[in-house]
Write a structure and sequence with these properties.
Elements: E1 14-21, H1 27-38, E2 41-44, H2 45-54, H3 61-70, H4 76-94, E3 104-109, H5 115-125, E4 130-134, H6 138-152, H7 159-182, E5 186-188
Parallel strand pairs: 1-3, 1-4, 2-3, 4-5
Bound molecules: adenosine monophosphate (AMP).
Adenosine monophosphate is lined by residues 23, 45-46, 49, 67-68, 71-74, 79, 110-113, 117, 156, 165.
GO molecular function, one term: nucleobase-containing compound kinase activity
Pfam family, one: ADK
Family: Belongs to the adenylate kinase family.
Length: 189
């Protein structure tokens, strides 16, 4: 999808950093620390989707639940809009103290997981300045997710869903990482 109009946020004022990595790579844990140390707002696409799934009256609840259980990608329009709304709310709420004049700094965790999301968000919402990619071995990721699954209550921290999430990551998310690497916007950790 392309757009000739301005993006929802001015990228001279709003900094967007995408944070990617396989399931269990440590994206959420590291984002929490980075957000505290560098005054970023941490937005997790997965958390926003889970909140929307549980919101009374959401038209997307069933769709989101099915995608999460199957480890597949929720349609780009849904994820992108949830992020845009959350960014606008955060800019508004911090405007009187830390972020004057529409400024903002966002770590967007678990997004974009597919090329179409990257294109849509960069063109319609706000272009990313940087992409951080966390990597480790699949064995480590599986071990962490199964451990987390004992207490997380997440429907997708089980071995069947984990296998599907890995497949989605290799098939759909790796091309996104390669895309930003070619643009020299990628940092590997
Ligand atoms: P996470 O919390 O990052 O592990 O994501 C859990 C699940 O939420 C994924 O397996 C997808 O089903 C869905 N999800 C998370 N982020 C996205 C995204 N950017 N686009 C579409 N679906 C997503």
């Amino acid at each position: 999808m392309t757009s000739n109009g301005p993006t929802a946020f001015d990228h001279n004022k709003v900094t967007v950093v995408y944070v990617l990595g396989g399931p269990g790579a440590g994206k959420g844990t590291q984002c929490t620390k980075l957000a505290e140390d560098f005054d970023f707002c941490h937005l997790s696409a997965g958390d926003l989707l889970r909140a929307e799934q549980n919101r009374d009256g959401s038209q997307y609840g069933v769709l989101i639940r099915t995608c999460i259980r199957e480890g597949t990608i929720v349609p780009k329009e849904v994820t992108s809009k949830l992020l845009e709304n959350a960014m606008a709310a955060e800019i508004q709420s911090r405007s009187s103290h830390r972020w004057p004049s529409g400024k903002g700094r966002f770590l967007i965790d678990g997004f974009p997981r597919k090329m179409d999301q990257a294109e849509l968000f960069d063109e319609v919402v706000c272009p990313a300045s940087l992409v951080i990619h966390f990597t480790t071995t699949e064995d480590v990721m599986v071990e962490r997710l199964l451990e987390r699954g004992k207490t997380s209550g997440r429907e997708d921290d089980n071995i069947e869903s984990i296998r599907k999430r890995f497949r989605t990551y290799y098939d759909q998310t790796m091309p996104v990482i390669e895309h930003y690497s070619k643009l020299s916007k990628l940092v590997e950790v």
